[in-house]
């Protein structure tokens, strides 16, 4: 059965800390892995990863995919209170889009 | 099993036709949502419903219509007025509609207009 597992489910850190969010998957016919940030009603697209070992960066956020070990990480450095959100990982296969449960990140001032 | 189902997975329609996408959830969630995803882009909100018999437009509601007659069902109709309907459509639900409520997504329907 295809599945996407995110960890931790929730995380509380202080402003300025660096966090690493994990997403592991078991999916047949893998095509790509997506990261989203959900603050309000519509999740915001962050990254799409298709190749192993190539880091994608956007400001303080970065992500990398390991297709051999079947996981991806999302790093956020120098966290700010505005980073508080639910971070969603999803994997695209030939047949479907499989979502993880999300990691709820809370940044304390 | 609890979850959200969408049908069909793949849908083809001719230009000028209306088509309805199904979304059903057995999670007893009050809130339901419809999103559209285009290649290389993030999700965009079409409509959402916080409670039965009530729904609100999202960011890109033009050319779409919805109904929420039952708590577990939130069908989306793509009308002929939608100028560029070919896309991947995702349905989601959450317990409530606050920003901290996790949205659970269905597997999606890929609509292609021929």
Task: Give a quick precis of the structure.
The complex is a heterodimer of chains A (109) and B (114). By secondary structure, chain A is mostly beta strands.
Over the alpha carbons, how many angstroms does the gyration radius of chain B reach? Answer: 13 Å
**pLDDT < 50 stretches of chain B:** none
Helix-strand category of chain B: mainly beta
Termini Cα gap of chain B: 35 Å
User: Hey, roughly how much beta strand do the residues of chain A contain?
Assistant: over 45%
Biggest chain contact: A-B, 20 and 23 residues
Q: What is the beta-strand fraction of chain B?
A: over 45%
Report on the biggest sheet of chain A: 6 strands, mixed
Q: Helix count of chain A?
A: 0
Protein model, in words:
The complex is a heterodimer of chains A (109) and B (114). Helix content of chain A is 0%, strand content 61%. Chain A has 109 residues and is mostly beta strands. In chain A, strands 2, 4, 5, 9, 10 and 11 form a six-stranded mixed beta sheet that branches. Chain A has a five-stranded antiparallel beta sheet with strand order 1-3-8-7-6, with no helix packed on it. In chain A, a hairpin with a 4-residue loop joins strand 7 (61-66) and strand 8. Chain A starts with a strand and ends with a strand. The mean pLDDT of chain A is 90. Chain B contains no helices and eleven strands. The N and C termini of chain B lie far apart (35 Å). In chain B, strand 5 and strand 6 form a beta hairpin. In chain B, the strands form two sheets. In chain B, strands 2, 4, 5, 6, 9, 10 and 11 form a seven-stranded mixed beta sheet that branches. In chain B, strands 1-3-8-7 form a four-stranded antiparallel beta sheet, with no helix packed on it. Chain B is globular. Chain B is mainly β. The A-B interface holds A 36, 38-45, 48, 86, 90, 95-99, 101-102, 104 and B 9, 33, 35, 40-45, 48, 58-59, 88, 90, 97, 99-100, 102-105, 107-108.
């Amino acid at each position: 059965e295809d599945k996407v597992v995110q960890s931790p489910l929730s995380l509380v850190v202080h402003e300025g800390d660096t966090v690493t969010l994990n997403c592991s998957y078991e999916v047949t016919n893998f095509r790509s892995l997506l990261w989203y940030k959900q603050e309000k009603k519509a999740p915001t697209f962050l990254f799409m990863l298709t190749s192993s070992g190539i880091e994608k960066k956007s400001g303080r956020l970065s992500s990398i995919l390991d297709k051999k070990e079947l996981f991806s990480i999302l790093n956020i450095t120098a966290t700010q209170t505005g980073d508080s959100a639910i971070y969603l990982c999803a994997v695209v296969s030939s047949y479907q889009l499989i979502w993880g449960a999300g990691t709820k990140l809370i940044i304390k001032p | 099993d609890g979850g959200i189902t969408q049908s069909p997975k793949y849908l083809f329609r001719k230009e000028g036709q209306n088509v309805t996408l199904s979304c059903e959830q057995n999670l007893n969630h009050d809130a339901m949502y419809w999103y559209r995803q285009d290649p290389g882009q993030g999700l965009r909100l079409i409509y959402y419903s916080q409670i039965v018999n009530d729904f609100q437009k999202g960011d890109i509601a033009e050319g779409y219509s919805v109904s929420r007659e039952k708590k577990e069902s939130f069908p989306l109709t793509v009308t002929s007025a939608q100028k560029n309907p070919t896309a991947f459509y995702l349905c989601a639900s959450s317990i409530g509609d606050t920003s901290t409520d996790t949205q659970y997504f269905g597997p999606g329907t890929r609509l292609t207009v021929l």
